[in-house]
Amino acid sequence: MKNLEFIYKRHSIRKYTEQEVKEEDLKAILEAAIQAPSGKHKQNWHFVIVKNKEKIERIAKLVEEKNKKIADNLGDEEWAENFKKFVKFATVFRTAPVLVLVYAGKYTPTGLKELKAIGASQEEIDELSKANPGLQGVSAAIENLMLAAGELGYGTCWMTSPNYAAKEISEYVNFNKEGYYLAAVTPLGVPAIEGKSPERKPLEEVITVIE
Ligand SMILES: Cc1cc2nc3c(=O)[nH]c(=O)nc-3n(C[C@H](O)[C@H](O)[C@H](O)COP(=O)(O)O)c2cc1C
Question: How does the average pLDDT of the chain come out, rounded?
């Protein structure tokens, strides 16, 4: 069996030490990220690296403030309480020394214009867009980033729950690139606790083999 340890040692890390991420490691991790494949080789990703602890804390506060604003307007106490309860999973990046904001750029799936041109049904057009190839490339880059980070002794956590505060976050870091939107964020730092992943569904449940 080949050594796939680098896959199995990646876990979502939600607590970090104060230890800095070395500049050369950060560069190596980001270089690994951009080796990912992308549709039409568009490389439609952009990484905003926040290295300032106070700014990272401010971003966590922005998520908390937006969470409260949404909860206060739900008009249902139980729903609001439940939504508020999960804010901690949207701010687990706050102890990390580095926060990576991953932006995805616009991408037109192959065949979309052509389907429109031949007057295909909206259903068929929506079905093609569902696979979201633009986001698939960016996701591959995120996974590369995480595996490289793990290999260099750092922890990460793929996060999309802060996305409800995407507008506030992007304004705060002053990032604005035509057609780009916040896809995910990940903290990056030395894990303060040993990571442990939840169990996976059995392989048989998620594969279909055609002989
Ligand atoms: C698209 C995506 C979004 C996620 N969003 C969050 C998040 O907002 N907060 C969080 O704590 N974990 C988040 N996770 C991490 C998952 O909870 C985690 O990957 C899963 O429980 C499996 O655990 P493992 O990563 O340790 O193997 C996300 C993971 C993915 C792939």
Answer: 97
Of 159, 164, 169, 194, best ligand 1 pocket probe by most atoms within 8 Å of the beta carbon: 159
Q: Using a 6 Å cutoff on CB, does residue 147 contact ligand 1?
A: no
Contacts of 172 (CB under 8 A, 6+ apart): 55, 58, 59, 62
At residue 1, does pLDDT exceed 80? no
Which CATH code fits 5-206?
3.40.109.10
Q: How far apart are CA 33 and CA 37, in angstroms?
A: 10
Backbone angles phi, psi at 11, to 5 degrees: -135, 155
Q: What is the pLDDT of residues 43-56, one digit of tens each?
A: 999 999 999 999 99
* Residue 12 beta carbon below 6 angstroms from any ligand 1 atom: yes
Q: Where are the domains of the chain?
A: 5-206
